[in-house]
Amino acid sequence: MQRPALGLMTALTGLLLSTTFTSAADWNQWRGPERDGVAADGPRLIDALPDTGLKPLWISQDEIPAARDSGWSSPIVADGKVFLFSHKKTRLDDAELPPKKFPYLAPEERTGMSDAEYEEYEANRREEDLQRSKSFRFEETVYALDAETGKTLWTNQRPSIYSRFPQSSSPAVIDGKLYVLSAGRVARCVDAATGKDVWETRLPGEFLDEFLQSSFAVADGVAVVLCGRLIGLDAATGEILWQGSEEDESGLHTSPVVWTVGDQQRIIVNVADGQTVCVEPKTGRELWRVESEGGHSTPVIAGDRLLTYGSSRKKGLRCFSLSEGEPELLWTYQGAADPGSSPVVVDGYAYVQGENRLACVDLETGKAAWMTYLEIAQPRYTSLIAADNKIIYAFDGLLCFAATPNQFRPLISAKIDDTGLLAEESAFRKMLDIDKLETTAEGQKEAEQLWRKKFGSGPLPCSSPAIADGKIYLRLKNGVVGYDLSASSAAESKCP
Prior knowledge:
Blueprint: H1 6-16, E1 38-39, E2 58-59, E3 76-78, E4 81-91, H2 115-133, E5 136-146, E6 152-159, E7 172-174, E8 177-182, E9 186-191, E10 197-202, E11 217-219, E12 222-227, E13 229-234, E14 240-243, E15 257-261, E16 264-271, E17 275-279, E18 286-291, E19 300-302, E20 305-309, E21 317-321, E22 328-333, E23 344-346, E24 349-354, E25 357-362, E26 368-373, E27 385-387, E28 390-395, E29 397-402, E30 410-416, E31 422-424, H3 425-431, H4 434-437, H5 441-454, E32 466-468, E33 471-476, E34 479-484, H6 487-494
Parallel strand pairs: 1-27
Antiparallel strand pairs: 2-34, 3-4, 4-5, 5-6, 7-8, 8-9, 9-10, 11-12, 12-13, 13-14, 15-16, 16-17, 17-18, 19-20, 20-21, 21-22, 23-24, 24-25, 25-26, 27-28, 28-29, 29-30, 30-31, 32-33, 33-34
């Protein structure tokens, strides 16, 4: 088939992806207003941090629980508020629990087990975890924070139940209503202005101890989420309108995206067995299905291109043409892979992170313009975002680099200390006098301990940042922090 020029494709992207009205200063759902990780509007951002670092606008209050006890939901921004969902467990007593007899087994740890043996093991594990869960209290909370000050405006809290890992669906705010998938297959809608409940619906399917992290997309008045199978609910009432195919039952955590063709909206989502489907939002009618190997990542739509990203290099980053008919596979890039990270597209190039690799891939050819290695221990699940022709990756610290195919050009490579200060590692080494400490063997131990203490509460792995109106909001291991990255703000701070 004949494909349009990339320049035309890029110019039309904003028109093709229009879903529902949001403010230019909003990052109102998982991966932003168009679910592609891009802040299309906004001010120019700084190209480097001040020598003394950047102080936070605010750090959230202590009432937001540490992430290890409350999940990995990413923050979103809408109508001047930062929203966050948490699924918290609290010990009921101080009695020490015995070691598990049936701990969770990752896929690589199941080698040698037959399907029947693993099924029996899982039944024993679930029963053991259920008994242990009686030593905890579980609660879910939606937080609304003032985006300028971090002050808590309201909370919506309700009792919850145990799941194997904390429920971590990121909220979506559409037309003043917040949608989130709670533990136990419960879909919820909350008034974003007041925090009052609008509706909640128990979704079909047997709940064992699963954790389903998919985030809602809303199209044509239908709220769609992947909860075992794909499910569409009336966004106003919570009534279940349709359910997807039983073939799609899976533990995938991918989120649906909205594709607009002319005046028609479609839902595209990865489902079981490495497939990606497109359905009508109002009816759930399947329009096409392709082998994509997309996995947990969220699909990315860039004009007339669909990108899916797999969990192994063999599955790779795949690019399909998009039209009314079934998509055509154009190329596969096998230089990176990640269990759940999603790529981002800027000016005809896809930027993708996987393992310790970071690559810029030509959207037209599938060839890498460049590839580099990150000096980060086991980066995974966290997704890239883009604003002002810059790519941002928040894992361990904050990496910002130029969105250019010419070369990997880092602009910021910073850490966040225990006060929230965002600064280059070289600046912290100077502040802490690390070079002097490291001149002796005893000093090296002291420097290592000091470093761990200062930087133990940085960005939360598996969570992705939100950026709106030049301000970035990060989920930390123990809260939420906001920074003003706008160039205008930096210039004003230098004025006498």
